[in-house]
Amino acid sequence: MIIDTHAHIADIRFDSDREIVIQNAFNLGVKKIFEVACENSYWDKALELSKRDNIFVSFGIHPNNVSKTTHEDFDKLKTLVKNEKCIAIGEIGLDYHYNNNSSFTGSINFQKELFIKQIGIANKCNKPIIVHCRDAYDDIIDVLGRYKSSLKGVVHCFSGNLKQAKVFIKMGFLLGIGGILTYNKSDNLKHVVFETDINNLLCETDCPYLTPKKYRGQRNEPSYVVETLREIAKIKKMLFSEVVQITTQNALKLFSIW
Fold first, then answer.
1. Residues 70-124 pLDDT 10s
2. I need a surface site. Which of 35, 42, 85, 242 has the fewest CB within 10 A?
């Protein structure tokens, strides 16, 4: 069984063929999809999707949405995470990529405040977190380090260096590996994957974003997670079936799905 541990199939880009995309994934062995609803405009749609047997959901507020977040949103989030199909809080975190851009939506302090508040929700309901980190690894490590061993989760779409990877793993986090691994200019990430115990890795698509090399220029889909699994098998010189089995068990254990 293959799991896409990070998808956004509630996204508007799937509105015309969502059922076909889901069925294609299931037909190709992707038997579970973890829908990550990190915008309040997608929460209800994601909740509806999670009513299906093989789709689970996480709810959170993305750091780029900090300026648009209301008290009502936060109250609704606290209710949504109590749903039996909610497996995590996320994606949440810090994103400094647009910090020097005039369109940057929210200060670093506001992002940190929102991140910490959502970590509090995760701790209260004993759920893992799905961490978004873009150009902010040092600050993410600083925030997560305050919680000692009380947190667990995954660093989504990991693109840091090996030293940072080791710090996250030591704190009890797994690394989410996606289509970027298949790119020609991903030598750093390939090195991290090579040096990291496979028991600390998850596979994801982040669809409709970050399409693997084979399908570049197209919308990403849950079924394309297979490309990342193949790349991991190639890098680590393992059987594809072995990579599938281990990363699947990693996901089931982290998100308490039995």
1. 889 999 999 999 999 999 999 999 999 876 654 454 588 899 999 999 999 999 9
2. 242
Q: How many domains does the chain have?
A: 1
Containing domain of residue 200, as a range? 2-254
Q: CA-CA distances (angstroms) from residue 125 to 26, 77, 80, 94?
A: 30, 12, 11, 22
How many whole angstroms separate alpha carbon 61 and alpha carbon 93? Answer: 9
**What is the distance between the alpha carbons of residues 239 and 213, in angstroms, rounded to a whole number?**
21
Q: Identify the band that residue 200 occupies on the pLDDT scale cut at 50, 70 and 90.
A: very high
Q: Give the CB-side neighbour count of residue 222, counting CA atoms within 13 A.
A: 32
Q: pTM score, two decimals?
A: 0.95
